[in-house]
Fold:
Amino acid sequence: MSQPGTAPAPARTPAWRYAIGMFGTSIPINMIKGSVILFYVDILGLDVRAYGAVMVVYAIIDALDNPLLGHLSDRTRTRFGRRRPWLLVGAPMLTACMIALFSAPSTLEGAGLVLWFAVFAILCEAFDSMLNANYGALLPELYPRERDRAVANGLRQGFQLVALVISLAVTPLLTTGVFGTAESTEGFRTTAIIYGAVALVVIVFMALGARERPRYSTRERPRLLPSLWSIVRTRTFWTVGLTGACYGVAMALVLSGIQLYVRYSLGLPVQDALYLQGIVIVVSAGGLAVWTRVIARRGALWAWRVAFVVLAAGFAALFFATGLGAAIAAGVVVGAGWSGQLATNDLIVARVLDADAARNGEHREGLFLSAFGFFGRLNGIVTGLALTSLGLFFGYNSGADPGADPGLAFRVYLCVYPFVLTAIGAVAARLISVPIETPPEATDPADPAGPPRGPADGAAVERPR
Structure:
């Protein structure tokens, strides 16, 4: 294994240069999450049962290939680093697949439509996983101290929120007003081409400027099965992962259903989703600076727990909204809670990664984050099942067969389901223990002549209070 100090430390990557990458990775996947139900189910008439089945299958496939992608990244050894080659390959592939996803011929129906949706949805998620496993793995490597991470993470979440304004709030206007209509698909294809080109340029710019640390790449490459076994035996992997999934799944439901909530539950044009999404994102962006200061004073764990409570309260208020004004007021609370989760969730995960590196003497952030991605894959399963449940409970099967009360159906989808999930997350966050902040020197590759440095498993954790 290579020794610390054998190569000069690389110049520090400016936080803004790393953070802007989140803008590029967020635009494609959030257009997909925010518009795919409207595009395929409501406009093209894909049955929600077929949609739900595809989402379950793709989630299973993605859960299997995600750890493999992370493991391959950890084992990569090139003069360009471990992560950058994957970022430079994944960006154009995701762009191409997203354009294809929103270019389904309007003449497709039945099995042909299901097949087109399934193939390109799965490919989009696979390349998105490739990008995010490598991009996320750079955060703890480039910024070893939690205070520095909080700044870089706050900036990148800010860029993500800017991307959300574009890919979620502005998209309905572009797809159904500027480039197309509410009943056609042309606007979606044009918007996907524009977003894909922007994302590609931004990701390449970020990747070329990221200065990886050579000492993190040991000569001995981690093996897949022993590494996976070590990870799944780590208690905090399960407790932190499942608790974080409560937030992740809840926001996935919101992103996928907000346009139809506006259409059916509020009885307004889809374009009015711009105002509701816009206020949530603006509040979230403004709140990042506040939450970053809270983290500096009270720590990431305390802020993480509070953010769960605020987010749950926002979903409860959103359920009772009967007009755009009330929905926007509730959206302010949702935005505040969401901002707290954006500012803290990755910092809690980074603590788990640091503890693993200190304990085992190997930096395998790619595999570990991809293993955490397993919980993110629950998003697809739960959103698919949640949408399918609307047909079972409320009779909503598609835009052509919306049932007797689609307004209540999407009120449940967007408010009740997320409230239950975030309430569970709030309770779990109070009960679990997470690793304390690990000193940066403790995560350096261990000397093979001596035992790995750092805390033993379970010895250095922040207990519930």
In short: Confidence is low (pLDDT under 50) at residues 1-7, 446-459. The chain is about 75% helix and 0% strand. Strands lie at 434-435, 461-462.
